[in-house]
Design a protein that fits this description.
single chain, alpha/beta, Leucine-rich repeat, LRR (right-handed beta-alpha superhelix), 2 domains, 7-stranded parallel β-sheet, Protein kinase domain-containing protein, leucine-rich repeat, Leu-rich_rpt, ATP binding, glycoprotein
């Protein structure tokens, strides 16, 4: 009979293997941590009634924590940190009277901390840090021991025992009011001011004379007259330093027309090459 299943620190992918639940009810340790397992946590874990340790840390598991885990009365250790779990912490976990370690850190859990967890007298390590949990922290049981509880990274938590050094719930309420003010008042004002500035710059742009560009779209059918002297001056007498490249029919130079104040590319055809004058 299989009692321990430890396949942690592999590169397992896909969903949690269903074969685990065909091992019978004798499995006491199930360790699947540090893999690339995806999908939700199966409710069939509740069939493993003798399960003592469940390790699912550092995977890509999503969805909610099954409330059916509360039926595994022998559970002492639950580790599900470093996943992307959502939803609330199940109230049914308070049925696990032998629970010692509970780690849900670094997920996306929401809701509040079930007050009933304070009734678990053997619980000596609770880590729910870096989630989206909010509300008032229970005051009894494990929550009286600041070294046994980790709550960091949950912006909405408040209250609890004094030695936890968490903000009072009135402070959290003030933060929410401030956030409400920012969203409903300040941000629209900033948006309105930005609109005014945009209109101002558009009007200013309309009054500013634009440079003339030697482009068909800019000039239409009218191009400025340019003499050979203008081209020679623009390219420093067709200097090698202004040479961009040579092709089959001539060379291309870069230059700057003084009057138009723009950069141009000037192609000089080699008339000794046949058909160059047709280009």
């Amino acid at each position: 009979m299989l009692r321990t299943l430890n396949i942690s620190y592999n590169n397992l992918q896909g969903n949690i293997p269903r074969k685990i639940f065909h091992t019978g009810s004798t499995l006491t340790i199930c360790a699947l941590s540090y893999n690339n397992l995806q999908g939700t946590i199966p409710t069939e874990f509740s069939n493993l009634r003798q399960l003592v340790e469940l390790h699912l840390s550092s995977n890509k598991l999503s969805g909610e924590i099954p409330g059916a885990l509360g039926e595994c009365q022998e559970l002492q250790i639950i580790r599900m940190d470093q996943n992307i779990l959502t939803g609330d912490i199940p109230e049914s976990l308070s049925n696990l009277k032998s629970l010692v370690v509970l780690n849900f850190s670094h997920n996306s859990l929401s809701g509040s901390i079930p007050t009933s967890l304070s009734d678990l007298k053997y619980l000596n390590q609770l880590d729910v840090s870096y989630n989206h949990i909010h509300g008032e922290i229970p005051r009894n049981g494990i929550f009286e021991n600041e070294t046994a509880v980790s709550l960091n990274g949950n912006w909405g938590l408040c209250g609890g025992a004094v030695n936890l050094h968490m903000p009072t719930c009135s402070t959290i309420s003030q933060r929410k009011e401030t956030l409400y003010y920012l969203v409903r008042v300040f941000i629209p004002l900033v948006g309105f001011a930005s609109l005014i500035l945009l209109i101002y710059f558009v009007l200013l742009e309309g009054k500013t004379p634009r440079r003339t560009y030697l482009l068909l779209l800019s000039f239409g059918k009218h191009f400025p007259r340019v003499t050979y002297g203008d081209l020679a001056q623009a390219t420093q007498s067709f200097s090698e330093s202004n040479l961009v490249g040579r092709g089959s029919y001539g060379s291309v130079y870069r230059g700057k027309l003084t009057q138009a104040k723009i950069q141009v590319a000037i192609k000089v055809f080699d008339l000794d090459v046949r058909y160059a004058d047709d280009r």
